[in-house]
Each structure stands twice: as structure tokens, then as C-alpha cells.
Design brief:
The chain is built from 10 helices and 15 strands. The chain is α/β, with parallel strands linked by helices and about 260 residues long. It folds into 2 domains: about 1-45 and about 185-260, 3-Layer(aba) Sandwich (Rossmann fold); about 75-180, Rossmann fold. A 6-stranded parallel sheet has the order 5-4-1-13-14-15. A 5-stranded parallel sheet has the order 7-6-8-9-12, sandwiched between helices. Strands 2-3 form a two-stranded antiparallel sheet. Strand 10 (about 155) and strand 11 form a beta hairpin. Helix 2 crosses helix 10 (about 255-260). The longest helix is centred in the first third of the chain and has 12 residues, at about 75-85. The radius of gyration is 18 Å and the shape is globular.
Length: about 260
């Protein structure tokens, strides 16, 4: 545990680590305050492209936790940065929420539903057959297919909802073209987080609750991984995977408890 405490920085997943829905998890306030008081560098990394950093900051504020927007990095931002690095001044047809479109505009990528360079998909509640039909036609005309994340389902207060992987599947099946997914477990996402806080891989710990996205992304980025059992993974699930996290904790609050 001392090795975790000595880290210069932390990259943390959000859902299942910091909160469930609109409920902050035990020990989170103490952990975040400890990072701030000890000048730790930190960023919250989320595969969800539905909210901007400002909206995520406001969400935590409503839960009683004050964290400025510059401490958040989303798959929408990573996707937009990836497209700009691949093809500056490109255009895209986007199926997703406003935060995904805003991330595109922030990187100088503009909307185009006639002959875009890319078709970009993210979680959305405005998915329709008309949009699906348009996306299929554009990919068949040569647009490259990009997913903000590969997650097939997400968990909400109402239960399970289809996530990007499920929404993009009909386009892949209909066109025979495979999407490129930017979000975790793609190590690209984690490397963006490292760059954002100005740390090398050996200087940080990556905290997540999923073996198949968080922990594998950390391992492939050569960072120390911390699996917390406050989300979707139970201790007995770990043996179902051919890789293991470096540390396993019940929740992020255990890090602060170790100091006491």
C-alpha cells in the first residue's frame, strides 16, 4: 500500500469507483481530499462520451465533492483528439450526445452528413432508424467508422442500457466494416490521461472497477493497476481473466484508511 501512497499521480475511472449513478461511494470524499491536500496530480477518466468535463464537475458538486473541470477526460475528448491527429480539418457524421459533438468542434472537426471522412458513434438516447440508415450509407461510401468506446452496455438508475458497442454493431454488420474504438481498453485513452497530468507511467496508479476495460488498459500501458470492488467486479471474478491487477481494494477509501 505504501507504494500507492507514494505515487505522484492517479488516474481514476468514475462509475463504480467514484459513484454509482447519482450516489457517491464510501470513502471517495476522503480520498479526493487527500489527493488535493498532498498535491497529487489526478484525472478522472471516463468511457462515457455523454457529458462534458464541466457537466461532470457539476455532477460531483451536487454530490458534495468540489473538483474543477480540468480534472476530467472523456472518451469523447479522446476520440476528437485521435481524429485530429489522424486527419486535421477532417469532417464527421456524429451519432451521439451534445458533449461528443462539442469535443469534435473543440478540435476543429466539423459536421458533415454528405461526404464525411468519419462516422462517429457514442452513447445517445436519440438513436433512430433514420440515423442508422444514414450512417450505413456514409460508411458504404467510404467514411471510416469510429466508436467512442467499445462498451456494449451501461448501467443507469433504470437498469441496463445499450452502450456504444451495441449501437455501432448494426452498422458493422450491415457494411462489413469494423469500427475502431478509442476508449478503454485502448491504451490510447490512458496515455492521454498521462499526458494531461504530466506524469510518466511509473509515477501513477490507475484505479478502476472493471477487469476487461480498466485493468487491461493499465497493464497494456505499463502502469500499476488498482482494482476496486465497489463496482461491477467481485473478488471471485478476477480468476476468470488471464491477467491480474497489482492491487485489489474494497474501495478507494481504503487508500486513506492505510494512512490512518
Amino acid at each position: 500500500m505504501q507504494k500507492i501512497l507514494n505515487k505522484i499521480g492517479f488516474i481514476c475511472d468514475m462509475d463504480g469507483v467514484i459513484y454509482h449513478g447519482n450516489q457517491i461511494l464510501d470513502g471517495v470524499k476522503e480520498f479526493v481530499n487527500w489527493m488535493i491536500e498532498n498535491d497529487k496530480r489526478f484525472v478522472f477518466l471516463t468511457n462515457s462520451p455523454e457529458r462534458t468535463p464541466h457537466e461532470l464537475s457539476m455532477k460531483l458538486e451536487r454530490m458534495g465533492l468540489s473538483v474543477s473541470p480540468d480534472h476530467f477526460y472523456t472518451s469523447a475528448m479522446a476520440t476528437a483528439e485521435f481524429l485530429r491527429s489522424q486527419m486535421p480539418d477532417c469532417t464527421a457524421y456524429v451519432i451521439g450526445e451534445a458533449a461528443l459533438t462539442k469535443a469534435m468542434y473543440d478540435q476543429g472537426i466539423y459536421m458533415n452528413d454528405v461526404n464525411p471522412d468519419y462516422v462517429v458513434i457514442g452513447e445517445t438516447r436519440t438513436y433512430s432508424f433514420e440515423k442508422l440508415e444514414k450512417a450505413i450509407a456514409l460508411v458504404n461510401k467510404g467514411a471510416k467508422l469510429i466508436g467512442a468506446n467499445p462498451d456494449t452496455v451501461g448501467v443507469t438508475e433504470q437498469g441496463i442500457m445499450p452502450a456504444t458497442g451495441s449501437l455501432i454493431a448494426p452498422i458493422e454488420i450491415s457494411t462489413g466494416k469494423k469500427a475502431y474504438f478509442v476508449g478503454k481498453p485502448n491504451p490510447l485513452m490512458l496515455r492521454h490521461g498521462l499526458k494531461k497530468i504530466g506524469c510518466h507511467s511509473e509515477d501513477i496508479a490507475f484505479i478502476g472497477d472493471r477487469m476487461d476495460t480498466d485493468i487491461i488498459a493499465g497493464i497494456e500501458s505499463n502502469v500499476d493497476t488498482v482494482l476496486v470492488l465497489s463496482g461491477v467486479t467481485a473478488r471471485e471474478d478476477i480468476d476468470n481473466f488471464p491477467y491480474r491487477p497489482k492491487y485489489v481494494l474494497d474501495c478507494v477509501g481504503d487508500i486513506v484508511k492505510a494512512i490512518r
